[in-house]
Structure formats: structure tokens, C-alpha cells
Amino acid sequence: MNCYYCGAYLDSMDTCPNCEADVKIWKKIASISNKLYNDGLERAQVRDLSGAVEYLKMSLRYNKMNTNARNLLGLVYFEMGESVKALSEWVISKSLQGEDNPATAYLADIQKSSARLDNLNQTIKKFNQSLTYCKDGNTDLALIQLKKVLALNPKLVKGHQLLALLYMKEERYDLALRALKNAEKIDVGDANTMRYKKECHEHLKANGKVKTKEKDTVSYQSGNDLIIRPAKFTDNTAVLTVVNLLVGAAIGIAVVCFLIVPGIRKNANTNAASQLVKANETIATREQSIKSLEDEISSLQQTVADAQTETSSAGEKNTSYEALLNAYVAYAAKENVKAGESLANVNRDLLSENAQQIYDNMLTDVKSAMLEADMNEALDLYEKNNYSEAITKFESIVQTDEGYQEGKAAYYLAFAYNYQKDESNALKWFQIAKNHTNSSSVRNTCKEMIDDMQSRGITVPDASGSTGTQAGGTPDGSAADNTTADNSDNNTDNE
């Protein structure tokens, strides 16, 4: 069993050995989920598929990451003929556990056979069409369509049950009972199947109570022959003969009118209905197939996206709290730079209101210490004539506070750019340093440098990054030299 928070393997203790989180409740929940999974497995093994579905759903309510329960639920659905539900469970299982997951093999086994996929799609379409016929009262068309459905997918429990209901509506309880027995072979614990069977047995029992009729014949043995004669002998007269002929003719006409003609009409109607079904299928097949697949894909994509978002959000939230805790430990130890580095890894939006207040308070105190540390590092690089890296450090400081230490950062940044032959940026930061400094010597140095550069046509770079004339000026010469910069530095520090 792994920790819900950090994913580390859990031992027998009630705390995680890695993140030290309390996992007592999590272990109990996971244990309940596994118990329900085992109960569902036992019912599936004895073909109580309906009971297995209920237990497996309860297992997933306790622990949605229980891939064994989800995979078994998909197998049970598939055995019941519910292919769409089975595929949905396997897709979700694969998204939650990408490696070492049997669901991957299940999906690949179905997808590698285009004929099998087409079979599943046809089953869904025809079953939905039969439901439509039932709602419209077209029982004959519904029966024809359902038989096609069960020919494609004999394990569809709902198909057998619907077929039984149609037979029961027509009071053909023997055929209904046969359909229900087929459904019971697949799922022995389905409540609907048992209820329908009980009703069929009651009707068949009632219809079986037939009154015995008086015998119209008498039979006796004569040697090896069995003689059967009427119980009462009547001598037919000529009148009765004529009457019998007339009655026979009437019966013949009645048979033609009431049996043969309706049979011909019924056959014609059945053929017409079959042609109508085929025509409706041809018209509706493409639209229903496209719409059904689009809805299914959209639903599965949304389910996967929701699961991935939830998992990603939980991991990012844990990371932010760990970073906040590390920052607080460093802050309490007066290691402000380390605390600032940890705060940079915190996503404030994922914190609670109290945690956000702690974050804001630490950030305010740590920010100045980090700027001071960056300033000392930048000055050290500057003194070592490492102007390129010094510029990077000074830039990060002035982006946070342009007038940091009364323009000292801007002042040194200007000289660093000047030593790098970038007089346009040097001019920009000399002007900014002049506006922020309170030191007269620094202000005079900045003014001299600005006047010298502007006299040579140097301009401040515009927003697009283009610059004015690069004159290649340095602090050497009339404006300033290295000694002047160093003296100015000392004046800045003294003042």
C-alpha cells in the first residue's frame, strides 16, 4: 500500500515513513475498498453479476484508485453485454495507472479487431432502435430488431429481458420464460429476471387449469387392432347430408376469408415492415453511429481530464505546502536566503487563507534580505571585473526595486554597462541613479558621465531595444576613470 500524499510505500505504522503524514484513516479506507473488491470477486465467480457490480461500485466509492476493482467491474459489464460501460471503466483505469495495468491489454484486444468494434456499435444501435419501436407500440418491429441484437450479442442481459417483456405483453409466457432462462444463465442474481420469471410461472399455472371434457369416442381392442368409434351413433339422413354439405362449404369459405387471406396479408405486412426496418436502419445508421461515438468520446475525454486535473492539483498542492514548510524552517533559523529560495517554489493560489497570510509575512521579511544578499554578490562580481555576471545580478535587483539603496544598484549597473562598451544602457542607468541618489558626489559623477555621453550622441535605448550611437566610451577620459568610479563608490558608502 502506498501513501496517498507522497506515494511512498507504507509499513505497519500509522504514519508515512517519508512525509510523516497520518495514514491511519487512509489505511482503513483502502482496507474497506479491498474487502468490497473481494466480495465482488466472489459473486462474479458464481455468476451473480448484478451483486458483483454493486460491491465493486461501493469499492470504488471508497478508493477510486483501486484499479483491480475497476478492471473487474469492466469485465463484469462486458460479460453482461454492456460494452460501453466496460470500455469506460477500462479507459479510466488506464488513465489512473498507465503502467502494469491489464486494462491496456483489454482495450488493445478490442481495438485490434475492426469487425468486433463494428459488432458492438451495431448492437447498441439496434437495441436503441428496438426501444424506440417499443415506445411507439410497434411490438412486431421491436421483436424483429431484438432478435437481431441477440444474434450479434447473445450475452446482453437487457436484450433477453426486453424480449421476455414483449412476449409477456402478447401473453406468450412460455417463450418469455425461455428468454428469461437465457438471461439467468448469464446473471443468476438479476432481480428483474427473477421477478419476471415469477410472473410467468403464475400465468402458466393459471392457464394450466383446464376442465376435463366428456369423451366423444369409445375405443376397444379387437385382436391386434385398436378400434375407435363414436360414443353415440347417429344415423344421417338425406337432409342432414345436404346440411353437412352447406356447412362444409360455409366452413371452407370461412377458412379462406379468416385464415388464408389474413395469413397472406400478415406475410405482406411483415415483408413491408422488414423493408421499413432496413430503410430506417440505412437512414439512421450513419447519424446514430457518429452521434453515439462523439458522445462517448466526449464523455470519456472529460472523465480522463477530470481525473488528471484532480491528481495534478493534489500533487501541486502538496509540493506548495512542503515548500512553505521548508521556507518557514529556514526563516525561523534566520536563513533568509534559503527561505526565499523555498518561497519561490510555492504556488500561493493553492494555499489556505491562513497559509497565505504566513506566506505574505515571510515574503515581506525575506525579500529585503534576499536583495541585500544579491547586492553583495553583485558588488563582489563587479570588484572582480566580472561585469557580465554583475550586470545580470544588478538587473535582477533594479527590476525589484529601481532605487534600491538610494540608486546604488543603478549606479554600479551603469558603470558595468560602460565597461562592457554598452553606453546606451549605461546612460539610462546613470540617469536613474542620479534621480534616486542623495549623495552629491554620486550625483556629480552621474551628471559628468551623462553630459559626456550625450555630447557624443549617445541615446537611451527605446522600447524595441534599438540604441543610439555606440561611441565606445569608458570611464577613462574627461568624464570619469576607474579611480573616479572607485572614489565615487567610497563616497556613496560614506554618505
From TrEMBL:
Residues 457-495 are annotated as: Disordered. Residues 276-310 form a coiled coil. Keywords: Coiled coil, Membrane, Transmembrane, Transmembrane helix. The chain crosses the membrane at residues 238-261. Residues 476-495 have a biased composition (Low complexity). SUPFAM superfamilies: TPR-like (SSF48452). This is Cytochrome c biogenesis factor. The lineage of its organism: Bacteria, Bacillati, Bacillota, Clostridia, Eubacteriales.
